[in-house]
Batch of 2 targets.
Target 1
Amino acid sequence: MKAVTTKHTLRSAGLALWVSALTFNTWAATQLLDSVVAIVDDDIIMSSELRERLDMVQASLAAQNVEAPPQEVLVRETLDQLILENIQLQMGRNAGVRISDSQLNAAVTRVAAQNRMTLDQFRLQLEQEGKSYEKMREDIRRELILQRVQAGNVNQRIQITEQEALNYLESPEGRELVAEEYHLIHALLALPAETSAREIAAARAHVDALYGRIQAGESFQSVISSSAEPFQFTGGDLGWRKRADLPSLFAEVAPELELGQTAAPLQNPAGFHLIYLADKRGGKTIVPQTHVRHILIKPSAIRSQDETRDFTAQLRQQIIDGADFTEVARANSEDIGSAQEGGDLDWVNPGQMVVEFEKVMNDTEVGAISEPFNSQFGWHILEVLDRRQEDLTEMVAKNRAREVLHQRKFEEELAAWLGKIRDEAFVDIK
């Protein structure tokens, strides 16, 4: 089994942590006792911390086949990085930044998934490599704190105007960003160069017959798999590709296909092709929206779960008996965000509400009042006022443009901010 890769996607000011250790012998040999190597504001950096980070940096460089800089340069740059991180961690502590166990568990699970392992497999592999699972967790917690401190201080310095987003979308890079992508499955019945006209006609008839079966409702995969010699297909999953990245034979056909549709057989010198559109993304974004209003009643120290459910049911019955939903919501709902609006949540997109709410909302007919149901917030009843298909293409495109522009500005502002906090900090290198 290959070694665990724990260079994960979490951003941090530090170099990638948790790579296979390669002892930095020269440094370790001269630093046998732990000592303070730097005072940073109200904290210190110990020589053991520096040695550990140097080992990690050295191992990372070796794994990437990158020649390490001279020792004095490596030590100085590594210590500078530790100082910057220490300043940010102190800022986090002073601001009360905390990473909950659930947030940490989710991050560790993502790291395991990136190594194509379950969490238990990941822990076992670390132990087999002589690494501490608990130490790895704390390193990730540290990176999460750094990430949060950076976001809190840098994001507020970044503004993306509407015009900037529009200008980006009009650029070649922006147009490429929002261009449609196609997930195609390809099957090729190859025709050798010496194939006779009679054999080509037989192959054409066979492919047409297969296409007819697909059109009649059989699945693309089962039909292709059923074809045997001398009509054996090759090909497979082409993955996600933009139109410009598709073979020219497919580029004109793919945009015209609906999801789950197979194109009519195509022929070129290589043979006969069948392509199936498994999925597509980008381009137009049409989203089903629901106009919904609700009433939320929360359990409390003086009202149990059962009593809360019964009270919610009573409110529902009042509305069914003729009471105005808006007035009942204003008088009783404990959702401070919607109570004064008569419980109106406006148009809701898929995934916008918690799972329990969305399921009941989707199962409720227009004009109907749901039965009471429970979520993490309390007991609800809801009414579906209307449903529609909304074109959010422009909004989605602008949001993607803002994300790209924000990331660019973030890197620039982060460098400036790190320089500022380093200049303002008290640092005494021993």
Note: The chain has four domains: 25-156, 158-178+392-430, 180-281, 286-391.
Target 2
Amino acid sequence: MEVRPLNLSLEASSSFMDRHIGPDDAQTNKMLKAIGVSSLEELIKKAVPNAIQIKRKLSFPDPAEEHLALQELKQMAQENQVYRSYIGMGYSNCIVPGVISRNIFENPGWYTQYTPYQAEIAQGRLEALLNFQTLITDLTGMEMANASLLDEGTAAAEAMTLSLAQRKSETANKFFVAHSVHPQTLAVVTQRAEPIGIEVVVGDPTTHLWTEEFFGGLVQYPDTYGSVFDYTEFIQKAHKVNVLITVAADILSLVLLKTPGEMGADVAIGNTQRLGVPIGFGGPHAAYMATRLEYQRRLPGRIVGVSKDRDGRKAMRLTLQTREQHIRRDKATSNICTAQVLLAVMASMYGVYHGPKGLKKIATRIHSLTVLLHRSLTQAGFKVLNPRFFDTLTIQLTKEQQQKVLREAEKNRINFRKLEDGTLGVSLDETTTETDLSLILSSFGISTALPSLSELKSSLSHSLLRNSSFLTHPTFT
């Protein structure tokens, strides 16, 4: 047997480029020859307009081995300043249970999954997604839910197109959006509406008048400023002129608040980030979408159902796939077919881990801390613009006061939501402690001792509170 010596040169050990930058010299030359050019430079000159070509030599640092590059990146990352964020707008910090982090979030058996097309070998993932659907239908009070969508903005756009498909009149082309929805949601809905000929009308849901020109509407619950409204009457008026209403709801708030289903909503959408998914600098997070059974064939995405195999044993499967691009192509109900499987599974397992009592305890504590913040601010003379709230307060300030508070907040390494009119938004979350609350108040120049949480009363009237049970299936016990 011939024994070949190992080539231990630095050049030979530099495999990062070989593994990540595609074709080698021979493959590159073969492709260049096939298209009739002699070099990459000649290809660029022919393909890229001369007016936008950079003539000078690019200034790059010397190349580095992969482990050295990672070391440098870690050193750069250590310069990041980590602040506590109370910005809200649909994203809240949360505590990821260790068992979910270790066994799902860090487990390639879960985190590599896109979607379980091969149902016969994906029963565990399908069951986890069925748990997600059950979690969503129970919390929203709706009849059915899909197995997640991309994010809250695209879910709102999907709800708009679902409503359009159900319109009674072909001339109805207006979609109402409350001015108090999250701005990123409004942006996505507006962009989606333009190419399909929908006119988005932004207005106040408390004064809006419905006409037959409208086919749908969207409201936020609680709204982007933290206010909690009962939309029951608003929805009833919409239904009189055949308008479908979508409620974009904070999923954790629905543990305490009257559900979209109880208010008569046709569709409920939102994101499930605060159910045990790291905040991740804004994404990705699994959206949810739930609706009534009569609209099941217009519901985008995937739905997991329970069936039986030929031996009569219970089996999970993807059902109603006629909506998918790969089945119906141009007749598909949606062009956004991604399901956030990993993140939906994490949210479902958060529900399993805590159960109904645990979720209620978390939601009640967040609300109680917000009541405490509200009481301390108002006693100090600040005006809070939303008297009914779940976890978010909007405080009226002059622009000078706003800048003063923000300067103090920066000293405390805190981020608030800065609004253009001088007001500030503060959203609490599962990770907020009474120590954090004292720091928040100190940013407003308040240093009084905090009363006990047990002494406080909810800001919510009885008519806004949830009376129905949820997560009664044994899986969540």
Note: DSSP finds 16 helices and 14 strands in the chain.
